[in-house]
From TrEMBL:
PANTHER family: CHROMOSOME 23, WHOLE GENOME SHOTGUN SEQUENCE, THIOESTERASE DOMAIN-CONTAINING PROTEIN. The lineage of its organism: Bacteria, Bacillati, Actinomycetota, Actinomycetes, Streptosporangiales. It comes from Streptosporangium carneum. Residues 128-262 form the Acyl-CoA thioesterase-like C-terminal domain. This is Thioesterase family protein. It holds the Pfam family 4HBT_3.
């Protein structure tokens, strides 16, 4: 079966019922560390393959260490299996050391309209009125940028020329660079691809995620996704970040919250 570059980069190969081999792709680096959303997508490939259910409806991840490109394993522990949901502990391991610990609930979603849904938390201009970030210096190690397209709401990237908005916020339209309809694994990456919301509040530097929880709310329609990122509090070297993901049909398809360290540099 033909696979996209992202499918191949997140592929998990079954070794036994509790172990999967993976190969972490250097193309998803943010200056050295691999993107946390990409790593969650890798873990979720293994979890769903071993589950009787088709979709990862909720994932809670603890980022213990910075994973490096190269061979790794996903170890699974099945905690509960029911008719409507299954719960799994999944650990990303390199060199016998745990790098990410996750708890994942899988279920099978139906592609139906919601009974009720609120609207987006912020309005987004059309893509033609949005801005792209400059291509990073090849020596920066920011290879993630080449894997995707982001078109930003202009006020939320004022930090780029020294004019941050003063509020923790980031908003953009998103899709993979290689044509591919979004799926739950693309959504796992989408909730963690925006520049940290603290940039708009005046902070800079790598902001490592400590904990990230996200929910798959609906199966996405083909086309661009809209990412709305915001924060509620910055203090004592920590910040929170909430992200809503809306699909091209105007449905809320994913939502996340993470706690991270304010960047240094």
């Amino acid at each position: 079966m033909w696979m996209t570059k992202f499918d191949e980069a997140t592929r998990a190969v079954r070794v036994d019922e509790n172990t999967y081999d993976v190969l972490l792709d250097p193309g998803y680096s943010i200056g050295g560390p691999l993107n946390g959303g990409y790593l969650m997508a890798v873990l979720l490939r293994a979890v769903v393959d071993a589950s009787p259910h088709e979709h990862p409806v909720t994932t809670s991840a603890q980022f213990l260490r910075v994973a490096a490109p190269g061979p790794a394993q996903v170890r699974l522990e099945q905690l509960k299996e029911g008719r409507t949901a299954a719960m799994t502990r999944a650990t990303l391991i390199q060199g016998g050391v745990s790098f990410i610990e996750t708890l994942v609930t899988t279920a099978t979603l139906n592609d139906v309209a919601p009974d009720w849904s609120d609207g987006p938390s912020a309005a987004m201009p059309p893509i033609e009125q949005c801005l792209r970030l400059p291509a990073p210096d090849p020596e920066s190690g920011m290879t993630l940028n080449a894997q995707m397209e982001l078109a930003f709401d202009p006020p939320t990237i004022g930090w780029l020329d020294g004019n941050p908005s003063g509020r923790p916020e980031t908003r953009a339209h998103f899709r993979l660079a290689e044509p591919q309809d979004p799926d739950p694994y693309v959504l796992a990456m989408a909730v963690d691809v925006l520049p940290p919301v603290v940039f708009s509040a005046g902070a800079r530097g790598w902001a490592p995620t400590v904990d990230l929880t996200w929910h798959l709310r609906a199966l996405p329609a083909p086309g661009w996704l809209t990412l709305l990122g915001s924060g509620r509090m910055i203090g004592d070297g920590w910040f929170d970040e909430d992200v809503e993901v809306w699909d091209s049909a105007g449905r809320l398809v994913a939502q996340s919250r993470q706690l991270a360290r304010v960047g240094r540099g």
